[in-house]
From TrEMBL:
Belongs to the succinate/malate CoA ligase beta subunit family. It comes from the Bacteria. Its EC number is 6.2.1.5. The gene is sucC. It catalyses: succinate + ATP + CoA = succinyl-CoA + ADP + phosphate; GTP + succinate + CoA = succinyl-CoA + GDP + phosphate. Heterotetramer of two alpha and two beta subunits. This is Succinate--CoA ligase [ADP-forming] subunit beta. It comes from Aurantiacibacter gilvus.
Amino acid sequence: MNIHEYQAKELLAKFGIGVPTGYPALTVEEAVEAAGKLPGPLYVVKAQIHAGGRGKGKFKELPADAKGGVRLAKSVEDVRKDAGEMLGNTLVTVQTGDAGKQVNRLYVTDGVDIAKEYYLSMVVDRATSRVAMIVSTEGGMDIEEVAHSTPEKIHTITIDPATGFMPHHGRSVAYALKLDGALAKEAQKLSAKLYEAFTALDCDMLEINPLVETEDGKLLVLDTKMSFDSNALYRHPDVEAMRDETEEDPMEVEAGKYDLAYIKLDGDIGCMVNGAGLAMATMDIIKLNGSFPANFLDVGGGATTEKVTAAFKIILSDPAVKGILVNIFGGIMRCDTIAEGIVIAAKEVELDVPLVVRLEGTNVQQGKDILANSGLPIIPADDLGDAARKIVAEVKEAA
Ligand code: ADP
Ligand code: MG
């Protein structure tokens, strides 16, 4: 799960990490009010969307030479003007895709006198099963380019969970950032606090870009992105409360309510499968037969009528879906129960695309009989290959 920059900064501040003062705003008036609480004379108005690259982003509704999603404002009146231009408009950045994202929240924050911009991020590195801290002296808006053309300027420090963050890790960070004296000490303290925040909050990614050295010799987190391990969210109700569903795919949000694992994809064959491994095999075999899956969907072990109905509705709400393949293995949940669920659900959603069903497992014959006698145009399949061939052919024929 991702959160907004201002929320991430609130969390980091609780760990004693330095961030510029700022306030979120949902309206122009709130933005003006926020600016009024700041000392000035320099303010920064920042679009809050779950995507980076805002500084260089462009608003769809504004002229091409208009300012982007991170704007320096020299007066409260400029804050008012910028907030008015940004709220409700669509910001397109390298990370949003062409559709862009509507800006519904702003963050109005202190303008900082920047001496230098650094990069610092943390991820759970699956290759080493450890938290890695990635740092570079080349922070700012071109870090992707740095990683591409001068990868030697990016340093990775891995932390053994058995020891936790040690003083030598902090010294490595300071050394990689080419800091000395008081700033090096500050970098050591900051990196230790970041590690503490990262592990205490069950983050899976934390990126600070830029981390800045101010003209008066302090380190401040100027921009941050944070994401969390969804499986650990139950331990952090305060973090879960920061969820902004308007930033997420609406179908994925709906699926979450029914405990369905759903990921939207680009193809035209909707899949409903129980078990993640079977779901992946189903997607593979659709591709093998020359088509593409419209989604990944795992209805889980207990494919109840309620879940199957919700899954059908979610699949069908995707206008790209031209056919559905249901591939269910009846283990603990028997095939006849599943077949009843499919029939009830298919009737309820008024299915208007071809539906191929492959059932296997306990009580498979009873299940097949229920489908055959349902009066619905369900196309039965004997095995996975047969099912994939049939749905691909049906969809191609209808096209
Ligand atoms: P993004 O990474 O989405 O483009 P950032 O928050 O990193 O957004 O802002 C882009 C750039 O704007 C930063 O690299 C920095 O130079 C400048 N900037 C951001 N916040 C401030 C601030 N509070 N004071 C001064 N400059 C800022
Ligand atoms: Mg940034």
